[in-house]
Amino acid sequence: MTPFYDFAIHLYSLGVKIASLRHEKARKIIDGQAVTMQRLKKELSPEGGYIWIHAASLGEFEQGRPLIEMIRRNHPDAKILLTFFSPSGYEVRHNFPLVDAVVYLPFDTKKNVRQFLDTVKPRMAIFVKYEFWGNYLNELKLRGIPTYIISAIFRKSQPFFKPWGGEFRKMLTYFTHIYVQDEGSRELLAGIGIKNVTVAGDTRFDRVTDIMESCVEIPQAAALTRDASLTLVAGSTWPPDESYLLPCFNAHPEMKLIVAPHEVNEERIAAIESQLNRPSCRLSTASPEEAAKCDCIIVDCYGKLSSAYRYGNIAYIGGGFGVGIHNLNEAAVYDIPVIFGPHYHKFKEARDLIKCKGGFSFSNKEEFDAIIEPIINDKKLREQYGKNAGNYIKENLGATRIIYADIIGR
């Protein structure tokens, strides 16, 4: 990579180090990277031969997980290294049992890259969706190590497709093969001369079906919804989402509500409770008997949301009034319609669900009411929209199998 890129990486790493003095997330990155090489030398075999899989954060890990599981299932003796850049992935999955080690990926300086690859000695590298680190990609190419990116999606607004994006376009040439989610991504890449591309789809579809098949019962949710004619499950919500959801719930006595805020802390839980005028309880402290007497359960703990969707007839997915909506597929797989805010355009699944009338977006109260009231009041319509959403998931299964057969199974 060019001296300018190297300078930018050093500047970025310096910025994170300075930020770590005050910000917990940056501090976790710096502290985690500080012990990466020590842990690799301790935990990895000196012979190397690892399948190295890198996921930026937790969301990318969930996309890569089906491939990890398929590799481990078919090759129990395979050596697998998992790396993260963000604490949101590492903190949750640092004990993931299907890999040999989980560490933070060091910053993309030439020194770090050579030290990392000399220690790991990977037989292949797989990046999930995003993360284009030029020095890592360049060094992998120079060493002849097959390098892939899976479940990738490209948009015209990205630097690769800008007149000034030569440095970014060069990174794409380092991949042995690129597996994209859709035809639009393939066409964009073809337009800049990148032809080693396969439209495989999104491995997240395979993941959510696995989650659905292994979901666990939530006794409180079962008690809440046992005699309910209508239940709305709201996942990963923020205050702007709740400003629409909670008044709607209050106005519909026939509706039960399960709400899981994106941030779980006392302030957020109390804020939700203060807006409810119907009986509610917290999942972590309520018994099933107590939940049966309530109209709303607030999910005040992590790891329950994907199973909670099974109790719903309608799903609301939060984040659409912020940087972007959260996981739609986790809800749609249960054959229920999904509703979300206006910031969805960079998410292919959101655009597709709207197109097939399994998902619905709104920007204001008038639009919200126009969407949700017919869904609440017309069971037949609600079930048809839910079927549309579920069929969309079923039609997009199989990306993991395609990628595995290409890069592992042959």
TrEMBL record:
User: 3-deoxy-D-manno-octulosonic-acid transferase N-terminal domain: from which residue to which, for each copy?
Assistant: 45-206
Catalytic reaction list: lipid IVA (E. coli) + CMP-3-deoxy-beta-D-manno-octulosonate = alpha-Kdo-(2->6)-lipid IVA (E. coli) + CMP + H(+)
Functional description taken from the UniProt entry: Involved in lipopolysaccharide (LPS) biosynthesis. Catalyzes the transfer of 3-deoxy-D-manno-octulosonate (Kdo) residue(s) from CMP-Kdo to lipid IV(A), the tetraacyldisaccharide-1,4'-bisphosphate precursor of lipid A.
The Enzyme Commission number assigned here is 2.4.99.12
| A GO MF term | Kdo transferase activity
Note the InterPro entries from the entry.
Glycos_transf_N, Glycos_transf_N_sf, Kdotransferase
> Is Cell membrane included in the keywords of this UniProt record?
yes
Q: Which Pfam families has this protein been placed in?
A: Glycos_transf_N
What Gene Ontology cellular component terms go with this record? plasma membrane
Give the keywords, sorted. Cell membrane, Lipopolysaccharide biosynthesis, Membrane, Transferase
Q: What is this protein called?
A: 3-deoxy-D-manno-octulosonic acid transferase
User: What does the record give as its pathway?
Assistant: Bacterial outer membrane biogenesis; LPS core biosynthesis
Localization, per the record, is: Cell membrane
Q: Which family does it belong to?
A: Belongs to the glycosyltransferase group 1 family.
The GO annotation for biological process reads: lipid A biosynthetic process; lipopolysaccharide core region biosynthetic process
Where are the active-site residues found?
E60
